[in-house]
Task: structure prediction
Amino acid sequence: AIQMTQSPSSLSASVGDRVTITCRASQGIRNDLGWYQQKPGKAPKLLIYAASSLQSGVPSRFSGSGSGTDFTLTISSLQPEDFATYYCLQDYNYPRTFGQGTRLEIK
Amino acid sequence: QLQLQESGSGLVKPSQTLSLTCAVSGGSISSGGYSWSWIRQPPGKGLEWIGYIYHSGSTYYNPSLKSRVTISVDRSKNQFSLKLSSVTAADTAVYYCASYYVGLGFDIWGQGTMVTVSS
Result:
């Protein structure tokens, strides 16, 4: 199975900050990567698909980039509602595998 | 708008079989381009993909769980189901059902259901 490694595991930031989360795949996955946001007690929500495409309804402050093995999720200006846990997911092959998550906390 | 809703037993005894159902509304489980997955999340931990099924009945299971997992579909009821046998405390988790659209990802999720394995 492809291993997905996110960094950092946790991050403290302030409203208005620019934040970047990275995800590395154990082998090349083209651009077959998604980013998901999960708030406590809620199901994950799709933010980005195909590494850089913004899901309908997701604010434009979210962006994704990367290809092959290295990917990033960037939030250009943090809003209070963005404090959550973020997961990457490879959908290059099966079994689908998630990163371990990055918890974004308020500084 | 497609919606998913999990149901099933919230408490299962060790060595028994966990059974959950995901009801699909607002669309057909036979819709082209979709597969239907189960994903779980132990308390305080990350997400683990369990497996998927197509409306045709074809399945793929995570090798880590393959020997214990069965996913089935009931097109007449527009729902799909998960059975996980020989459960232990390690299977305690929130179980989500989710739709996966080709080229997009897991776009629709159920709200999740907590399953506790305990005697």
Remarks:
- DSSP finds no helices and eleven strands in chain B.
